[in-house]
């Protein structure tokens, strides 16, 4: 799905990006405040996000005073949330409530560990939601409730790597399934380009009303099996529109380890 970024956003302003930023991390504790570049990692994410044309507001949502202090020091709007949230979506819903966002406001969930994500990915995903909301399927209402993004996997990326989430789409650009396994599987090995996997980019766009509904949904079997929260939405019948973006716009994904962070620092210093 594609369209002009920011078109059709609710009257009164653009979409609102909320960046969940927990200090705890299993593989890289304290990563959002890592400052090997001279700036905290979360500041890089915030600065990049603010360049998206479809946004009118960017807010950091955290559960730690240290992140709150750092955010305020570099000029970001920030909101304190509970330490008890089971996932980022739940934290996002609390932040949206504290910010007093309208039920039809568009909320963008931006990952706090993807400093090199191009702002165009946010714009394309916002456009995908608005276009997808108007889609009719089989004569019945089948519009998008959520939007996200994906890109063609590079030749050096392994489709069987469980750390890379793949997605397959319907012909009208909606997600059919997300998996850590290789999907689709080219049984005969002769499908060519159509068999290339799409790598999911973990950015989500929804109206606040949908965000509240999504956060309140019970966990589902496929979600628990794959450990992919977006499967909860599909299993509950919500449609997810997917914007296909340029591989170079994705920035290579999130930073999960100290080694990945060091590589980012080196890239930042060379620019």
Any overview of this molecule?
There is one protein chain. This protein is α/β, with parallel strands linked by helices and 271 residues long. The protein has 2 domains: 11-114, Spore Coat Polysaccharide Biosynthesis Protein SpsA, Chain A; 118-201 and 208-250, Alpha-Beta Complex (Spore Coat Polysaccharide Biosynthesis Protein SpsA, Chain A). The chain is built from 8 helices and 11 strands. The strands form 2 sheets. Strands 1, 2, 3, 4, 7, 8, 9, 10 and 11 form a 9-stranded mixed β-sheet that branches. Strand 8 (166-169) and strand 9 form a beta hairpin. Helix 3 packs across helix 5 (208-216). It is globular, with a radius of gyration of 18 Å. Mean pLDDT is 90; it is low at 2-12.
Q: How much helix, percentage-wise, in residues?
A: 25-40%
The helix/strand order is: EHEHEHEHEEEEEEHHHEH
Q: Give the tally of β-strands.
A: 11
CATH superfamily of the largest domain: Spore Coat Polysaccharide Biosynthesis Protein SpsA, Chain A
Distance between the termini: 32 Å
Structurally, the number of domains stands at 2
Anisotropy-based shape: globular
Helical region count? 8
| Low-pLDDT residue spans | 2-12
Based on helices, strands and strand pairing, what is the structural class?
alpha/beta
Q: Please give the CATH class of the largest domain.
A: Alpha Beta
Mean pLDDT: 90
Largest beta-sheet details:
9 strands, mixed
CATH architecture of the largest domain: Alpha-Beta Complex
